[in-house]
Amino acid sequence: MASRTEVVFFDVGDTLIYIPEERAEKIVRTLARSGIEVDVAKAHAAAIQADSDMRPAGFHAPATIAEEDLFRAAFARRLLDNLGITTIDPASLVHGIHYTDYAVCYPETHDVLRALQGGVRLGVISNAFPRLSDVMKRLGLVDYFEVVVNSSLVDAWKPDSPIYELALAEMQVPAEVCAFVDDLVPNIATAERLGLTGFLVDRQWQYHDAPHRRIADLWPVVDVLVSMPEN
Predict the structure, then answer these.
(1) Range of the domain at 172
(2) CA separation, residue 44 to residues 40, 80, 103 (Å)
(3) Which among 64, 62, 92, 55 is positioned nearest to 77, based on CA atoms?
(4) 140: left (phi over 0), alpha (psi -120 to 50) or beta
(5) 104: closest CA among 174, 12, 25, 190?
(6) Same domain, 84 and 197
(7) Pick from 81, 90, 119, 156: CA 20 to 30 A from residue 49's CA?
Protein backbone atom coordinates (compact mmCIF):
# COMPACT_ATOMS: atom_id res chain seq x y z
CA MET A 1 0.00 0.00 0.00
CA ALA A 2 1.28 3.47 -0.84
CA SER A 3 2.83 5.51 1.95
CA ARG A 4 0.80 8.44 3.18
CA THR A 5 2.25 11.77 2.00
CA GLU A 6 3.72 13.71 4.91
CA VAL A 7 5.54 16.51 3.06
CA VAL A 8 4.78 18.52 -0.08
CA PHE A 9 7.58 20.48 -1.72
CA PHE A 10 6.68 23.26 -4.16
CA ASP A 11 8.60 25.06 -6.82
CA VAL A 12 7.87 28.81 -6.69
CA GLY A 13 8.21 30.55 -10.07
CA ASP A 14 5.41 29.59 -12.49
CA THR A 15 4.06 27.19 -9.88
CA LEU A 16 2.99 29.35 -6.93
CA ILE A 17 3.70 32.75 -8.48
CA TYR A 18 4.10 34.30 -11.90
CA ILE A 19 4.94 37.60 -13.57
CA PRO A 20 1.88 38.85 -15.46
CA GLU A 21 3.78 41.26 -17.68
CA GLU A 22 6.51 40.27 -20.14
CA ARG A 23 9.99 41.57 -19.34
CA ALA A 24 10.28 43.44 -22.65
CA GLU A 25 7.07 45.31 -21.89
CA LYS A 26 8.44 46.39 -18.51
CA ILE A 27 11.63 47.59 -20.20
CA VAL A 28 9.66 49.64 -22.73
CA ARG A 29 7.50 51.18 -20.04
CA THR A 30 10.43 51.97 -17.75
CA LEU A 31 12.41 53.63 -20.53
CA ALA A 32 9.35 55.62 -21.57
CA ARG A 33 9.37 57.27 -18.14
CA SER A 34 12.77 58.71 -19.08
CA GLY A 35 11.46 59.86 -22.46
CA ILE A 36 13.09 57.05 -24.44
CA GLU A 37 11.02 55.10 -26.93
CA VAL A 38 11.98 51.51 -27.74
CA ASP A 39 9.76 48.95 -29.43
CA VAL A 40 9.00 45.67 -27.67
CA ALA A 41 10.81 43.48 -30.20
CA LYS A 42 14.03 45.46 -29.83
CA ALA A 43 13.75 45.40 -26.04
CA HIS A 44 13.20 41.65 -26.08
CA ALA A 45 16.23 41.03 -28.32
CA ALA A 46 18.44 43.27 -26.16
CA ALA A 47 17.36 41.46 -23.00
CA ILE A 48 18.00 38.03 -24.50
CA GLN A 49 21.47 39.17 -25.54
CA ALA A 50 22.10 40.57 -22.06
CA ASP A 51 21.09 37.20 -20.60
CA SER A 52 23.63 35.50 -22.84
CA ASP A 53 26.32 38.06 -22.04
CA MET A 54 25.76 37.87 -18.28
CA ARG A 55 25.39 34.10 -17.98
CA PRO A 56 28.31 32.55 -19.87
CA ALA A 57 29.23 28.88 -19.63
CA GLY A 58 30.14 28.07 -16.05
CA PHE A 59 28.08 30.97 -14.68
CA HIS A 60 27.52 30.85 -10.92
CA ALA A 61 24.45 32.59 -9.60
CA PRO A 62 24.81 35.29 -6.94
CA ALA A 63 24.98 33.68 -3.51
CA THR A 64 24.02 36.74 -1.45
CA ILE A 65 21.61 39.64 -1.79
CA ALA A 66 24.57 42.02 -2.18
CA GLU A 67 25.91 39.91 -5.05
CA GLU A 68 22.48 39.76 -6.63
CA ASP A 69 22.14 43.54 -6.49
CA LEU A 70 25.51 43.93 -8.20
CA PHE A 71 24.42 41.42 -10.85
CA ARG A 72 21.15 43.28 -11.43
CA ALA A 73 23.03 46.59 -11.87
CA ALA A 74 25.48 45.01 -14.31
CA PHE A 75 22.60 43.44 -16.24
CA ALA A 76 20.90 46.84 -16.56
CA ARG A 77 24.11 48.41 -17.86
CA ARG A 78 24.57 45.62 -20.40
CA LEU A 79 20.94 45.91 -21.50
CA LEU A 80 21.31 49.65 -22.07
CA ASP A 81 24.54 49.07 -23.99
CA ASN A 82 22.74 46.55 -26.20
CA LEU A 83 20.04 49.13 -26.87
CA GLY A 84 22.61 51.85 -27.58
CA ILE A 85 21.28 54.02 -24.75
CA THR A 86 23.78 56.15 -22.83
CA THR A 87 21.60 58.95 -21.48
CA ILE A 88 20.09 57.36 -18.35
CA ASP A 89 21.38 55.87 -15.12
CA PRO A 90 21.16 52.06 -15.17
CA ALA A 91 19.76 52.21 -11.62
CA SER A 92 16.54 53.66 -13.00
CA LEU A 93 16.11 50.51 -15.06
CA VAL A 94 16.96 48.01 -12.31
CA HIS A 95 13.90 48.68 -10.21
CA GLY A 96 11.64 48.99 -13.21
CA ILE A 97 12.21 45.46 -14.45
CA HIS A 98 13.13 43.35 -11.42
CA TYR A 99 10.84 40.40 -10.72
CA THR A 100 10.55 41.09 -6.99
CA ASP A 101 8.32 44.08 -7.69
CA TYR A 102 6.04 42.40 -10.24
CA ALA A 103 5.46 38.78 -9.25
CA VAL A 104 1.95 37.84 -8.11
CA CYS A 105 0.39 34.66 -6.77
CA TYR A 106 -1.82 32.46 -8.89
CA PRO A 107 -5.47 32.83 -7.83
CA GLU A 108 -5.57 29.53 -5.94
CA THR A 109 -2.13 29.63 -4.33
CA HIS A 110 -3.05 30.81 -0.83
CA ASP A 111 -6.22 28.72 -0.65
CA VAL A 112 -4.36 25.55 -1.64
CA LEU A 113 -1.53 26.14 0.83
CA ARG A 114 -4.05 26.81 3.61
CA ALA A 115 -5.93 23.63 2.69
CA LEU A 116 -2.72 21.59 2.94
CA GLN A 117 -1.46 23.22 6.12
CA GLY A 118 -1.99 21.05 9.14
CA GLY A 119 -2.43 17.90 7.08
CA VAL A 120 1.09 17.86 5.65
CA ARG A 121 4.34 19.71 6.15
CA LEU A 122 5.27 22.16 3.39
CA GLY A 123 8.59 23.06 1.80
CA VAL A 124 10.07 24.83 -1.21
CA ILE A 125 12.67 23.65 -3.71
CA SER A 126 13.34 26.53 -6.10
CA ASN A 127 15.92 27.60 -8.66
CA ALA A 128 16.14 31.26 -7.73
CA PHE A 129 18.36 34.17 -6.81
CA PRO A 130 18.66 35.22 -3.13
CA ARG A 131 15.92 37.84 -3.28
CA LEU A 132 13.33 35.08 -3.64
CA SER A 133 12.90 35.58 0.11
CA ASP A 134 11.78 39.18 -0.53
CA VAL A 135 9.18 38.03 -3.04
CA MET A 136 7.81 35.39 -0.71
CA LYS A 137 7.57 37.89 2.16
CA ARG A 138 5.81 40.47 0.01
CA LEU A 139 3.30 37.91 -1.22
CA GLY A 140 2.63 36.45 2.23
CA LEU A 141 4.04 33.01 1.47
CA VAL A 142 6.81 32.62 4.03
CA ASP A 143 4.76 31.35 6.95
CA TYR A 144 3.40 28.35 5.07
CA PHE A 145 6.78 26.69 4.65
CA GLU A 146 8.94 24.84 7.13
CA VAL A 147 11.91 24.58 4.76
CA VAL A 148 12.93 26.73 1.78
CA VAL A 149 15.79 25.39 -0.32
CA ASN A 150 16.94 28.10 -2.73
CA SER A 151 19.41 26.89 -5.35
CA SER A 152 21.58 30.00 -5.27
CA LEU A 153 22.11 29.65 -1.53
CA VAL A 154 23.06 25.98 -1.61
CA ASP A 155 24.88 25.88 -4.98
CA ALA A 156 22.72 23.06 -6.26
CA TRP A 157 20.16 23.35 -9.04
CA LYS A 158 17.17 21.44 -10.34
CA PRO A 159 16.99 19.08 -12.12
CA ASP A 160 20.19 17.73 -10.50
CA SER A 161 19.45 15.42 -7.60
CA PRO A 162 21.55 17.09 -4.83
CA ILE A 163 19.05 19.94 -4.30
CA TYR A 164 16.23 17.44 -3.70
CA GLU A 165 18.42 15.42 -1.37
CA LEU A 166 19.26 18.57 0.60
CA ALA A 167 15.55 19.35 0.97
CA LEU A 168 14.81 15.82 2.16
CA ALA A 169 17.66 16.02 4.65
CA GLU A 170 16.41 19.35 6.02
CA MET A 171 12.91 17.90 6.45
CA GLN A 172 14.40 14.67 7.83
CA VAL A 173 12.05 12.49 5.79
CA PRO A 174 12.48 9.80 3.12
CA ALA A 175 11.50 10.59 -0.46
CA GLU A 176 8.69 8.02 -0.38
CA VAL A 177 6.53 10.15 1.94
CA CYS A 178 6.99 13.34 -0.10
CA ALA A 179 5.33 14.97 -3.10
CA PHE A 180 6.84 17.57 -5.39
CA VAL A 181 4.99 20.17 -7.47
CA ASP A 182 6.78 21.90 -10.36
CA ASP A 183 6.05 23.29 -13.83
CA LEU A 184 9.02 21.72 -15.66
CA VAL A 185 9.23 18.13 -16.86
CA PRO A 186 12.95 17.53 -16.07
CA ASN A 187 12.43 18.69 -12.49
CA ILE A 188 9.51 16.32 -11.98
CA ALA A 189 11.43 13.48 -13.64
CA THR A 190 14.28 13.77 -11.14
CA ALA A 191 11.89 13.98 -8.19
CA GLU A 192 10.10 10.82 -9.28
CA ARG A 193 13.37 9.00 -9.92
CA LEU A 194 14.32 9.75 -6.32
CA GLY A 195 10.99 8.39 -5.07
CA LEU A 196 8.86 11.53 -4.59
CA THR A 197 5.31 11.71 -5.96
CA GLY A 198 5.34 14.21 -8.83
CA PHE A 199 2.72 16.75 -9.88
CA LEU A 200 3.52 18.52 -13.15
CA VAL A 201 1.81 21.91 -13.30
CA ASP A 202 0.68 22.30 -16.91
CA ARG A 203 -1.54 25.39 -16.92
CA GLN A 204 -1.56 25.62 -20.73
CA TRP A 205 -2.02 21.83 -21.12
CA GLN A 206 1.00 21.61 -23.41
CA TYR A 207 2.99 18.63 -22.11
CA HIS A 208 0.91 16.03 -23.90
CA ASP A 209 3.64 13.39 -23.99
CA ALA A 210 4.91 13.83 -20.44
CA PRO A 211 4.67 10.56 -18.48
CA HIS A 212 3.77 12.37 -15.28
CA ARG A 213 0.61 13.33 -13.41
CA ARG A 214 -0.38 16.64 -15.02
CA ILE A 215 -2.47 19.26 -13.25
CA ALA A 216 -3.94 22.46 -14.71
CA ASP A 217 -3.84 24.28 -11.36
CA LEU A 218 -2.84 23.47 -7.79
CA TRP A 219 -6.14 22.15 -6.46
CA PRO A 220 -5.60 18.52 -7.56
CA VAL A 221 -2.66 18.36 -5.14
CA VAL A 222 -5.14 18.77 -2.31
CA ASP A 223 -7.67 16.38 -3.83
CA VAL A 224 -5.15 13.60 -4.45
CA LEU A 225 -3.32 13.85 -1.14
CA VAL A 226 -6.48 13.96 0.92
CA SER A 227 -7.70 10.78 -0.78
CA MET A 228 -4.41 8.86 -0.37
CA PRO A 229 -4.76 5.90 1.98
CA GLU A 230 -2.67 5.49 5.10
CA ASN A 231 -0.60 2.37 5.67
Answers:
(1) 7-19+103-227
(2) 6, 12, 19
(3) 92
(4) left
(5) 12
(6) no
(7) 156
Rounded Cα distance between 199 and 15, Å, is 11
User: Does 13 share its domain with 127?
Assistant: yes
Cβ atoms of residues 95 and 9 within 8 Å: no
> Per residue in 146-192, pLDDT tens?
999 999 999 999 999 999 999 999 999 999 999 999 999 999 999 99
Query: CA 83, CA 28: separation in Å to the nearest integer?
Result: 11
Query: How far, in Å, CA of 21 to CA of 99, rounded?
Result: 10
User: What secondary structure letter does DSSP report for 130?
Assistant: T
User: Taking the CB of residue 57, how many other CB atoms lie within 10 A of it?
Assistant: 4
Read off the pTM: 0.92
pLDDT at 1 (0 to 100): 40
Instruction: DSSP for 16-29, please give it.
Output: TEE-SS-HHHHHHH
Radius of gyration of the chain (CA): 19
Number of domains the chain is built from: 2
Q: Give how far the C-alpha of residue 16 lies from the chain's centroid of Cα atoms, to the nearest Å.
A: 8
